Amino acid sequence: MPAASPRRPENETHPEFDLEAAHLDGTVAAMLRQIEFWEDRERNAGADLETSVIMADEAGEHAAMLSPHVHHPYFGSLKVRVGGREQTLYVGKHAFQDVKGPHHVVGWDSEVGSLFYTHELTWTPRRGGKGTIRRRRQLDVMQKRLLRVTDLYDDEQGGDTGGREEVLLRRLNEGSTAGMRDVVETLQPEQNEAMRFPAGTPVIIQGAAGSGKTTIGFHRLAWMTNAERGVHRARPEACMVLMPNRVLAAYAGRILPELGLEGVNVTTPESWAVGLLGLEKLEVTDRTLTLLLTDRDNTRRALAWRRAKLLGDARMLDVVRTHLWHKWVGALRGQALSEALEVPGRGLLTFSLDEAALLEILRTVFAQDSLDGYRAAFRRVVEELALDTLRVPEEHQAGVLRQLSTPLTTLLGRVFASTTPVTETRRLLGSPEALKASSLLTEREIQLLQTDPLSGIPTPRRAHADVTELPLMLAMQAFMGGIGRTVGRTLEPFDHVVLDEAQDYSPLLYTLLGRATREGHLTALGDMNQGMHGYKGPNTWDAVRGVLPGAQTLTLSRTYRSTRQITELGARIASTYNRAADVQGVDRDGAEVQRYQNGNELELIARAVKDAQSAGHTNIAIVTRRGLDAERLSEALRDHDTDAQPITTQEHRFKGGLVILPVNLAKGLEFSAAIVASADTGTYDDSTEYERRLLYVSASRALHWLALVSAGELHPLIA
Predict the structure, then answer these.
(1) What is the mean pLDDT of the chain?
(2) How far apart are CA 663 and CA 630, in angstroms?
(3) What is the DSSP letter of 548?
(4) Residue 211 marked ligand-binding
(5) 3-state SS, residue 346
(6) Is 438 annotated as a binding residue?
(7) Which residues of the sequence carry a binding annotation for ATP (predicted)?
(8) Cα(81)–Cα(626) distance, rounded to whole angstroms?
(9) Cα separation of 499 and 522, whole Å?
(10) Is 463 one of the annotated binding-site residues?
(11) Across the 719 residues of the chain, what is the mean pLDDT of every consecutive 10-residue run?
């Protein structure tokens, strides 16, 4: 073994540590030389001033992109043999070509970079031949300094070394922050496969709490922007990420730029919907959730659940389409278009369409079902028909269309512009006759839509819409004015859309997102066991596959978030209502789940906080069932020397530290330590599946340390 280097960390005994440290120094020096070259404006001079400015700007952009990676050029290496020649490839977050030396780095998101994560030992390079993996090696680098070398696979040492699990456990034992874990260095083979699922295919990634769904979805989006994706390559500014609430949307908005995803539209389904409707000041309520969290009448809760599910049923798209067909056919009665148009060189020519012709155009428009809606499509068909009928030369077409514009706009106004998506949706829901027109709904379903189980839940005084109505309003918008990505005055399909907490999106919303996105470019991340908002979501992933042709479901079988003790507790809760009982956790031992009961709740919570802090945790969450509980406890805990930042609305930002928040806002976040307040049957009704789902989400937020608190006896599932 070589003598210990002054830079060699204590306890680091890998025989090739010094060789790897020297290579790291060489790579850092090569990167700095390249950045210096790019920043030297005299070297980036062109034939004229304009060319020089362009070249200098491009070089400056390259330097700015590479600079953050100098401190951490790579995290792994591959020793490979191709065609009898052996070489070592270094894998990093940013590809780097050393033009004057051997210190190249391949990007993690390249096809070659993917070899670092798989179990495969052979592959076929693009230039033919056969490649063999001889060694995979993890290299922990921080601030240009090598800290640790870990072999993951080495054919000279018998193959698999167990190092991958060793590195994973080291990372998982680190404390959490207010950001997302960086998994590029520790992607597991099943996660890597999900992230790199063939582009152009809709993919549903199902995984239990802590399986890395959201992280994998974000990295998949970064992978989609790589030039190697070819025709499927996505532009960040043409992509959208939908998060379940604004707390998580703000969190994602901070994370995505770290993956090189600048300009991605990160928002919530509700914000996207009201923006597309042009009603940004419309207040969106979720009265169904309010009823489920506050009302103890199970009959009323079941009725509200069933009605919300029906509003999001995929059949409602054709219910809306049929309603608009009858509405617009009625509006066309007695209508006609006749206009004298001057064509240069040919004088005045009359273009006429009677009622029957207009009806045939409407039928054509419905058959085309274009992205920008039926009104725009109707105008387009009429304009094309006018130019074709009058045989207008190409050079005169713009002028003729200007003459036709005013009378055509007047006609469109009489047929299409008599209502808005919001008012038309409410008109449809208020009319049993309109609901019957499609013959898709049963009498019982029509009666259900006519009921109002939410009548006891207050509504805002200002203009509002309920979250369960929004997919229907979007359907109206899709047919009336179009749906997609707004670019100036036009609509384009999104390059790629990522849906987080995808079990809470209705089949109708999936159908609409499929229309708004390039075919096959949708990634859904979810867990049916965490369906807190199941009244909006599908019953199974089969319902989603039914509206997204070719969609595939991948299952992440392991959960990486929590210790064995916390994972086993969550699995016990989930096993009472369905599929998560067999989820496998990483074999990471930790503290036993702490239980505090039969005492003053505030004193018990304060004691739990201090115990968590004494155990070394700073990022701690107190999870309550409702926002009102969080507000009450936050104020009362100050008298017990416990100052927890309340997060009770979507406007609050999660910044780490000690926080207190309701379970619906905690979902999707993780903490070093979590304390479940009022963890008893009085708060989480043991007889109701929905309540057990809430308890599962509450108890699965912690990475390392979990406490359960009750003023009386703890819930029997966690006692």
Answers:
(1) 88
(2) 10
(3) S
(4) yes
(5) coil
(6) no
(7) 207-214
(8) 58
(9) 8
(10) no
(11) 58 88 95 89 61 69 86 93 89 90 91 87 79 92 92 87 77 56 74 91 89 88 92 96 85 79 92 90 88 84 93 96 96 94 91 96 94 94 96 94 96 88 94 94 95 89 89 95 90 96 94 95 89 83 94 87 87 75 72 96 96 94 92 93 86 77 86 95 87 90 94 94
Per the structure block, which two tokens stand in for 536? 């909006």
Q: What is the DSSP letter of 226?
A: S
Using one digit for the tens of pLDDT, what is the confidence trace for 438-483? 999 999 999 999 999 998 888 888 888 899 999 999 999 999 999 9
Q: How does DSSP assign 244-301, residue by residue?
A: SSHHHHHHHHHHGGGGT-TT-EEE-HHHHHHHHTT-TTPEEE-HHHHHHHH---HHHH
Q: Could you identify the residue written with the tokens 């009450």?
A: 632
Tokens of 443: 């009498």
Sorted by sequence, the CB contacts under 8 Å of residue 291 that are 6+ apart come out as: 300, 301, 304, 453, 454, 456, 457
Was 682 annotated as part of a binding site? no
Tell me the C-alpha distance between 711 and 708, whole Å.
11
d(CA 292, CA 301) in angstroms, rounded, equals: 6
What percent of the chain is helix, strand and coil (3-state, nearest 5)? 45, 20, 40
Instruction: Identify how many contiguous H helices and E strands the chain contains and give both numbers.
Output: 24, 27
pLDDT (tens digit, 9 = 90+) per residue, 236-245? 999 999 998 8
| Whether the Cβ atoms of residue 261 and residue 438 lie closer than 8 Å to each other | no
* Six-digit token string for 717: 């599932």
Q: Cβ of 279: how many Cβ atoms within 10 Å? A: 17
d(CA 419, CA 123): 59
Q: Is 214 annotated as a binding residue?
A: yes
Name residue 203's beta-bridge partners.
523, 552
Known binding residue 162? Answer is no
Q: What is the CATH number of domain 564-571+581-709?
A: 3.40.50.300
What tokens appear for 510 in the block? 């999936």
209 in a labelled binding site: yes
pTM of the model: 0.80
DSSP 626-656: SHHHHHHHHHHHGGGT--PEE--STTSPP-S
Give the integer Cα–Cα distance in Å for 137 and 473: 53
Cα gap 292→532, rounded to integer Å: 10
Positive or negative CA dihedral for 502, 503, 505, 508?
Answer: positive
In this structure, the chain runs to a length of: 719
How many other CB atoms sit within 10 Å of the CB of residue 520? 18
d(CA 146, CA 139): 7
Token pair for residue 271? Answer: 């914000």
> Is 330 labeled as ligand-binding?
no
* Phi, psi at 464, each rounded to 5°: -150, 165
278, 279, 274, 256: which is closest to 266 by C-alpha? 256
Q: CATH 3.40.50.300 region(s) of the chain?
A: 190-292+485-556, 564-571+581-709
Distance, CA of 614 to CA of 652 (rounded, Å)? 27
Is residue 584 a contact partner of residue 558, using CB atoms and an 8 Å limit? yes
Query: What token pair was written down for 136?
Result: 């995979």
Query: Which residue from 643, 644, 701 is spatially nearest to 673, judged by alpha carbons?
Result: 701
Q: CB neighbours of 644 closer than 8 A, spacing ≥ 6?
A: 609, 622, 633, 634, 637, 658, 659, 660
CATH class of the domain whose range is 190-292+485-556: alpha beta
